[in-house]
Every structure is written in structure tokens, then in C-alpha cells.
Amino acid sequence: MFTTTVTVRGYECDANGHVNHAVFHQYGEHGRTEALRAAGVDVPDLTAVGLGPIILESTVRFLAELRVGDEVEVVVDVRFGEGKTFRMDTELRRGEQVCATLTGVMGLLDHGTRRLVADPRGKLLALGDPQRAPQVLGEASPSEK
């Protein structure tokens, strides 16, 4: 698990005074990017080796309003299986209250072939900080142990 914090800004809110629906996706993207950075993998590092993170599916479940000035914890849970995709699920929390959940299916795109790469966890671990990456990038699947 990885956690970062954002503060709701006025321009992110709609006419009803709460965070616009599209901004929830942006908070999820911020959390995913910061989780990779915490593992020692910046997007330029991926680009340099011809890879890029890709979102294949993203769903938001809205549970409570977020308003200007709210401090929001963005909690990202990264899980890998045996295939070419992995999950980066997120909770947006205000204090103890879960305000939204975002489920996401991700992959690593090979820029040359325009296809998903096999073993995305292995690729990320190889690029990441060996002291931080295993904790941020979750447990290995049973077949990797």
C-alpha cells in the first residue's frame, strides 16, 4: 500500500460545490504515479526503456462529497497476478471516511510493438529502487514465489 495526500482546490469543484467527477480520476492518476515514484520508477525512466504505464479500465464509486479545502488521502493498493495486467486500486479518504473507491486495471505498453509486456511487476522491479519497490509494488503472485 502507498499513501499520498492532496488538498481539494476551488477550480476542481463544480456548480454544486463538490469535486467534479472527472477530478476523482485525476486524484487516482496522481496516486498511481506517486506510487510508482515511491518505488523508484519515474515515468521518464519507463520512457527511456520504451515502456509506458497504460490504464485499461478505470471505475469510480462515489461515496461522499469532497469540498474545497478537504485534505484527501489517496491510498493505492498495487496487485499483480500472472498475466500482462495488474491492478492499482485506490481509496480516497477524508479522515476515517472513504469518499470514493477507484478500481483500475493497468498494463505496461511497449512503445515499439504497441503491445502489453509480459511480467510487468518484474519490469517495474528491475527499474525500481530495490529498497522500496517490493513494498510499494505489492506481493508477488503465488506463481512468482
From TrEMBL:
Top-rank lineage group of the source organism: Bacteria
Pfam families in the cross-refs: 4HBT_2
InterPro entries (alphabetical): 4-hydroxybenzoyl-CoA_TE (IPR050563), HotDog_dom_sf (IPR029069)
CDD domains: 4HBT
PANTHER family: 4-HYDROXYBENZOYL-COA THIOESTERASE FAMILY MEMBER, LONG-CHAIN ACYL-COA THIOESTERASE FADM
Protein name per the record: Acyl-CoA thioesterase
Organism for this UniProt entry: Actinomycetospora straminea
